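Pasting as-is:
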Amino acid sequence: MASYTEVMVSRVRPQWLRRKLRAIGLLILLAAAAVSTAGCSNQSLTVKAGENCPVSAGKARDVKNAAASSSRLLSASVPASKGLGCVYGGSLNPAPVHQIILNSVKASRLAAVLRQVSIQNPPDGPVNCPADTGGFTVIAFTFTEAPDEDVRWDDSGCQTLDNGRVGTTQIANDSFGRFQIVEADVTR
């Protein structure tokens, strides 16, 4: 028959071993996370409506605005004097596929609907999205009485809009659908 000490040692050793293995597993997980995010970038892209689209989006995953609002996509409340849409093919093709020049009427119409888009987080739980090609569009606006502003539109998969400070999703967001309708109309 085993002594009390032998029984306690046999119980302690597996707990110690489990803790050690758990710590090793955690270190492996953290190392894998560091490696997987090593190539990620938080670079931003700035587009000027009065110029051509940048020849490459590079690794940019966001836009940068000096006056970006944290409560809506566009902070300027005045009509836009012009706009530019830079359509990029995706993360594997960061060069612009084409650019869309918007006159003041079309730019103002698109800016007005962007101001109306409700800021929402994605819903909790699983969501089915169409295929995400990584394609995105940067829409730049020039305002006569306010700083220029850019909005990034991830236009495949579960679509999103972002101004560099606040973003929203198309999921269960009727106002996002209104933006898509106006965008399709003004870019024809």
